[in-house]
Structures are given as C-alpha cells and as structure tokens.
Fold hypoxanthine phosphoribosyltransferase.
Amino acid sequence: MTAEVQHLLVAPGERAQRVRFAHPAEAEFAAFLDFYRIAWEYEPRSFPLRWQDGRIVEQFTPDFYLPEQDLYVELTTMKQSLVTRKHRKVRRLKELYPHVNIVLLYRKDYHEILSRFGYGSVDITSLRPDQIERVLLSPAEIQRRVAELGRQISEDYAGESLVLVGVLKGITFFLADLARAITRPLAIDYLQLSRDLREGVAIRKDLDLDISGKHVLLVEDIVNTGLTLDFILRTLRERNPASIEICVLLDKAERRLVPVPVKYVGFTIPNEFVVGYGLDYRELYRNLPFICVLKREVYEANGHAQPVGAPRHESA
C-alpha cells in the first residue's frame, strides 16, 4: 500500500527553477546538487506509515531521491521539535520498508552527500568550491562513459590483443580505468614528451615494448589542436604496428588545427580550463575524481594568466 506522487527527474547540472519547493532549504539543496552534477528527484514517492480501517492515515514523503545512490534524503533544521518528529518518521519508515535507504540530513552535513558521490577528495587537494567555475563531469558520468568505451573497444577488437599506449602524466587515471573496462588481452606502455619553444616536441621517455605487428590503441587524456597527437601518430606509425587508433577522454574539437583521426571520444567539451581526473594545474588537482572548470582568477593569482584552454596538460 503505497501512494505515488508525480515523478520529476532533474538531469544533472540543470538549475531546476521550474520546481516549486516547499521550503527555501530545499531549493538551496537542489542548487547544491546541481552544482556537483548529482541527479535528483523531488518528493517522488510517499510511504504510508499508519493505516486505519484500510485507509492511510499517515504517510511520509522524503524531500529528495538520489537515483545514482538509491538514496532518499530528508532535510531538517536544528529545531529540536522538528528533528524529533522527523526522526520518528524515519525510524518507522525503516521498520516498514527495510530495503529503503534514507538519511536525515542537516545543512552542515552536505559534505556527507559529496563523499557518497566521490567528491570527498576536494578537501585534500586544497581546491575550494569557490575556486570552481562549475563541475563539468561528475564521477558517475566519467565512470559510465569509460565503461561504454571499454565495451565498444572490446567489441571492435574481438579475437585480438591490444597494446595500450598512454602519454604521461595526465593519462594515468583514465588509462587505468579504461584498461579494466576492456575485456581483451592487452599490454600497457607509456610515452612521455618534452616541449621546447625552440626545438618543439620530442620524446622524453620512449616505449619499452616493440609494437611492430601489434594492434595499438593510443590513449590520451585531452586533445586540443591535434599538433602533438599528430607528432605521436607519425612516430608510432614508423614502427609498423598492425593498426593504430586513438582514444581520448576529452576533445576540444573547436580548437583543432590538424585533422587527427580520433576513433573513440569520451566527451567533447568547450574550450575551457579544466582540471581533475588526471588533468592538472601546476601538478595540482590530478586526484580529483571529477572534472571541473577552474576559475580564471585561480591561475591568474599565481602569475600564470594563461589563455583559457592553453595546452599545459594535454596533447596540443
């Protein structure tokens, strides 16, 4: 015996101004979730708590449902009478519906939600939320897309083995996750490049493996102009692999100068300064599990007023 209300799913990253919230705290929490691209539903279900003569006489409608965690969230204030009443309802709901996950959340505990979605490492990178222009890709979105790429690559290379070639350092996280998502025999090797304004791009650390006659998948974190990626392709083709394809996590297609043949693309993104999931600013923020746009004043304050999208951590 359950009573359903209108099911309203709000996509991550959208400011759901059309939703009429019952309390300003709910609107604030929705904006908080939107900023971090966490999918949510507002009051999607009512749970009957007491019946009399076959009729529902008391029910409980949690404020939010977070589908990616299968978690209901009920917001509360510090007012003791309200907390006591809500605690009673939450306890009753758990007794009647033991399979339902629900938390009673104070505003000060919003960080608990972030930790459930992989945002906890913001603290250890010294990156404050006010230094983030916006979250571009959440941990859940990245992992879903990496899994899709892994399935596609596994299908395309059915019956074959692969050599994954990553370009250090930004590729570390993407390459590790992608390799685990691929269900074909594979080896992994790395290149590292050096860039000099006078001499251009050169190989600083070469491959350890002989790729002659092998199927090679060149894996990059991000591609801009395509100039560096074109250099790597020409270098590897001279070693006579059986085939060579490119997989990139992020593609700034609007900045392309050289038409490099990228077969697998995780996300096409705008020309903005991004960090996280291996991408850095001055070696910081690589260990963020999400990808965000860094505010311009963060790097301008350090005397590095680079143009937005400058290729400091990527294949140019």
